[in-house]
Write a structure and sequence with these properties.
Length: 166
């Protein structure tokens, strides 16, 4: 497995894996398949253009993208010490092979180079025990629970808010 920051050339593979995640696991993401399915490749290319304050990592098996995670840093002066992990997903057939941990460890390595970045925040579905265990093993701590964070087809889902100090 290799890990790298995704760019515009990865747009087609990114769109495929992102839509798979949203379609198969709607309760794990605040966005929806219906919202993102009509994004054009050009829009995805723009989304994937790495910037100083945001980028998306991908993990590959050979040439195939099998996992993604996005990072966005706060840009206002009072919040600049914080960043957020979003959209973490690994395809089912590649789980339990260490891909998610490897992506996060590479993300932390990259983020330690960012001056002034002190905290990394994320939210995770309260029923996603496997992800919660991974985050806790990487020293994320829960600091809140948002009840009824998502509402999908009349069903509510809670989210845990977690933070890791760098």
């Amino acid at each position: 497995m290799n890990i790298r920051i995704l760019g515009y050339k990865d747009a087609s593979q990114y769109k495929k894996i992102r839509l798979q995640a949203l379609y198969n696991y709607p309760a794990l993401f605040s966005s929806s398949y219906e919202h993102e399915k009509n994004y054009t490749i050009q829009e995805i290319e723009q989304r994937l253009r790495p910037q100083a304050e945001k980028f998306t990592l991908g993990v590959f098996e050979g040439e195939r993208l099998i996992g993604i995670v996005a990072f966005v840093r706060e840009t206002s002066a009072k919040l600049y010490h914080k960043g957020h992990i979003m959209g973490m997903y690994v395809v089912p057939e590649a789980r339990e092979k260490g891909a998610a941990r490897m992506m996060l460890e590479e993300l932390f390595r990259l983020l330690r180079k960012n001056d002034g970045l002190e905290q990394i925040h994320l939210t995770v579905g309260s029923s996603n025990e496997q992800a919660i265990a991974l985050y806790e093993s990487l020293q994320f701590k829960q600091y809140a629970i948002e009840q009824k964070a998502l509402k999908i087809d009349g069903i509510y889902y809670d989210e845990l808010w977690m933070v890791k100090n760098l």
